[in-house]
Amino acid sequence: MDILKTNPAEIEVGVVGIGLMGSSIIVSLLASGHRVKAVAPIPADFADAGNKIKDQLNNCLHVGLLKNSVSYYFNRLEISTNYSCLANCALVMECVIEDIDIKSQVYKKITDVVPATTIIASNTSAIAITILQQLVSVPERFIGVHFAEPAYATRFMEITCGEHTDAKYAEWVFALAHHWGKEPTLLRKDIRGFITNRLMYAVYREIFHLVDSGKTTMEDADKAFRYSVGSWITLMGLFRRMDYTGLEDYAEIFKNLFPKLSNADHVPHIMEKIVEDNGRGIQNLKGLYPYTDKEAKEWERAFEAFNEDIFRLAALYPDNVAEKERILI
Amino acid sequence: MDILKTNPAEIEVGVVGIGLMGSSIIVSLLASGHRVKAVAPIPADFADAGNKIKDQLNNCLHVGLLKNSVSYYFNRLEISTNYSCLANCALVMECVIEDIDIKSQVYKKITDVVPATTIIASNTSAIAITILQQLVSVPERFIGVHFAEPAYATRFMEITCGEHTDAKYAEWVFALAHHWGKEPTLLRKDIRGFITNRLMYAVYREIFHLVDSGKTTMEDADKAFRYSVGSWITLMGLFRRMDYTGLEDYAEIFKNLFPKLSNADHVPHIMEKIVEDNGRGIQNLKGLYPYTDKEAKEWERAFEAFNEDIFRLAALYPDNVAEKERILI
């Protein structure tokens, strides 16, 4: 099989790991028309997986992402605890926890059953692809494919090459990602932290500095960011925004402001305290903000609803506003 | 008149400067029920102002922000080239260009006609309030009130004290801003660059570094930011997002990534080139991206439509998701 010439719809895709991300990735692949073989290395995930995936397929139906019935898609999925089900997969997505030893064992089990032509992808957002690809037998076919959660209702995707990845496979996945309804970015160099993470961590560094030094509060910073950046980011991105606002004052402000921004290289005080307290935010009701059990659940519901809303809204505004023919997948 | 005890709806508000921001601020104030006295220091703005404001009031009507007819609100506005119309205003908003000499002349003309009890506010986003307040006779009543564009259909507002501002007036404007349907933040210390600007410039510093060093492209960075941050920012803000995602990996990533982020203190190469070329983005079709005249117009139309959409969407998700009773103003 020459994977580069295969019709995307005919590709069987494997997924290893059926946690939060793994299950929504499975749903995204099913909704895109693939047959999916899913391996659950954790028994608890295996028991739970069927119902979880049916629920998410129902969400897809609700958002208008499915052409056929939920059962049509569900029947194209095989869930197993046995890696041998991956034998015919042209692409296998690894979605297990960010632990290099566990990932290493998983890659060994995958490569034991798939042909050398199979592309192996990791959904990691924390470990460099160049490091992970040293753990597989065909590193040039190893690649980073980073989804956002929930994978079936977000368009974000970062495709990242490691040092030894052959670009033609990255480009193949890039094309396939469009078939999945994504708006992928292709990072040809494996930089620490990927693009989006680096941008966000630059913001975190500055905002922790402003809060730690008493210049603003978490509440105000959150509010300001929601109502300022929130009012244009989904339409424009960063560079387009500068063009839109006329570019005039930026250079002058860069010159004045860059030397005043935080260059901190240490973990902020507030975050150190959270780690000491074993805070897990809404998960254990110990976060940067306080939560009752009811409030934590309300945030989960609100995000589910908001994500649907912004997904639909973003679909009305494609990359190039001139491409009016583009519609919700 | 004790301004702090006045019923917000009865306050007459003055606006000086009827450019892009000034006119949408006038519309925001009218839509909130104030009588408005507007001074147009530039004759061309004066000629144009009436029609521009009627158009924007029609936009407000379309978004559902008006309880009465467009003409009801328009009739509560007086536009003049003469500062004496400001005599009874409890609050005067200065919205002229970011030039300290021009602002100084404007403040002189305002303070010549208003009583010492009037609060004077600047919509500046570039000059420190502590500097501007030295130009007025009652600095404790001078304050920064920074709207986003278009002021009538955005909830963002940064209220900033200068070193000599009396906090009680800032708190009064803060309360008034809620009456305007804003989600204001109150910055008690006058820091260089305000909150939102500092956060965004931290992102700009990093993203120019990544693009300048060939690690990604403008197109990919824009795409990644739109579809990642865009999928949650309007709901959550930055700190809430960390709580939502469980907080677990942040401290570790801070430790690893902060030392690798850009600490540049100079204007990025790409931006220097734009300044040399006198690029003004979509305004003169010379930007970071290329534009035809048609494309520039399409971006303007798209932003107008998107802003309406995201404004309505954000209204469904107030600050605290538990406050279900809150609705579109």
TrEMBL record, chains A, B:
Keywords linked to the UniProt accession: Oxidoreductase
Any Pfam family: 3HCDH_N
Highest taxon listed in the record's lineage: Bacteria
InterPro entries per record: 3-OHacyl-CoA_DH, 3-OHacyl-CoA_DH_CS, 3-OHacyl-CoA_DH_NAD-bd, 3HC_DH_C, 6-PGluconate_DH-like_C_sf, 6PGD_dom2, NAD(P)-bd_dom_sf
Membrane-crossing residue ranges in chain numbering: none
PROSITE patterns in alphabetical order: 3HCDH
Residue ranges of domain 3-hydroxyacyl-CoA dehydrogenase NAD binding in the record: 13-190
Location of the 3-hydroxyacyl-CoA dehydrogenase C-terminal domain: 193-291
Family of this protein: Belongs to the 3-hydroxyacyl-CoA dehydrogenase family.
Name used for this protein in its record: 3-hydroxyacyl-CoA dehydrogenase family protein
Protein source organism: Mucilaginibacter boryungensis
Lineage, broadest ranks: Bacteria, Pseudomonadati, Bacteroidota, Sphingobacteriia, Sphingobacteriales
